[in-house]
Amino acid sequence: MTTLPSGFARARRWLRDHPLAFDATLAFCVLIAMICGSFADPGKGHGPTFGTRTPEAFSVLLMVLAASALVLRRRHSMAVLAVTGGLTATEYIFMDPPAPVVMSTVIALYTVASRTDRPTTWRVGLLTMGTLTVAAMVFGSTPWYSQENLGVFAWTGMASAAGDAVRSRRAFVDAIRERAERAERTREEEARRRVAEERLRIARDLHDVVAHHIALVNVQAGVAAHVMDKRPDQAKEALAHVRDASRSALNELRVTVGLLRQSGDPEAPTEPAPGLAVLDELVDTFRNAGLPVEVAGADRAPRLPAAVDLAAYRVIQEALTNVRKHAGAGAKAEVSVVRVGTTAEITVLDNGRGSAAGRPGAESAPDGGGHGGGGHGLLGMRERVTALGGALTAGPRYGGGFRVHAILPIEARTGEPEPPGPAVTTGERR
Q1: 3-class DSSP assignment, residue 217
Q2: Lowest mean pLDDT among 172-176, 179-183, 234-238, 306-310
Q3: SS3 100
Q4: Cα dihedral 3/5/7/10 (nearest 10)
Q5: Is the whole-model pTM more than 0.85?
Q6: Which of the two ends of the chain, N or C, has the fewest CB atoms closer than 10 A to its terminal CB?
Q7: DSSP state of 365
Q8: Radius of gyration for the chain, computed over Cα atoms and rounded to the nearest angstrom
Q9: Among 24-28, 171-175, 291-295, 297-301, the least confident range
Q10: Could you give the angle at the alpha carbon of 204 between the alpha carbons of 201 and 206, nearest 5°?
Q11: SS3 71
Q12: What is the pLDDT of residues 178-193, one digit of tens each?
């Protein structure tokens, strides 16, 4: 069975969805109240009395017109206020005692105050209050200080104040709602930005992995094809290196792509990200491919933070891959990992005679190399280093060769930096 509160709530929702019906109902109720009030005689001494007077036909006509105008109070609030105010002033001028047509003006003034700005509310409100109060005091038979005349001033003033308060509350609620919607949009934009950054990072990892291992596979496959007929044992060794490089590439690809999986997916990757701890294995793959590499390793130094460790590994991997691809025959490389205060400096040098224009990304080297190239190797390295708050420079060396130098902060950028100390190598040269 429907309860009374639910019935009222349903009726309220219906009236809110049909504002014209609500205004018609309100106008009818105001008309009934004005007609009932017109039967009251203000009297003298002990308050009003009912049944001692009957409203004139002219007063009834004014009340009907004023109530009818209230039906359009939302669409034409100023016009409705002008009409009801004029009808009320007419009632005060020609009828004595006047019928309570002022009730319609109070409703119209409240509507104007709730739908306009504060300066307009007070200008219109003061004008309406002054006009109707003066008309009641001047043309009425009662003394100017009578309670009926002061009531006109009080009711019109309260209508202006109530409408302004409702308008302020609506503006406050709308501001809170807009702020909440803006915060929600900001959260969604931040989430999309983080997703884009994560995709870019994974793309860089995929580029580093694929470029490195495919370059090694290409070199070893060329060696195997060259010596297959004359030296089968060396060809088998080269093919074994191809197999190892491809297996390593697949494993690293599995780890990198595994970052995209959900936490509950089967076979989630558990292998740690590569770092300087496996630098020897990385260098061995290049040595097996025929590139002599000398290393100042990271065997004795404390382990770098995970993000810095991965970035250092990727910089070395990409730089050596570029050496192998572009430095030319007989090139040698040298890798150095050095701690200087709160930073780690990664340096990869080579003495190759190949064209610097072939280095991927060399056109963006900050030292003004101005080389052309179509790859993104150095660009990806620079983005990775810059994301950690570091710096990377790359360009030709004086006398021939190429140099890649990265400076990575060991501590977080929000931490208090330690005073710079003397350079400390992270391992021994071998």
Answers
A1: helix
A2: 234-238
A3: coil
A4: -140
A5: no
A6: N
A7: -
A8: 44
A9: 297-301
A10: 110
A11: helix
A12: 888 888 888 888 877 8
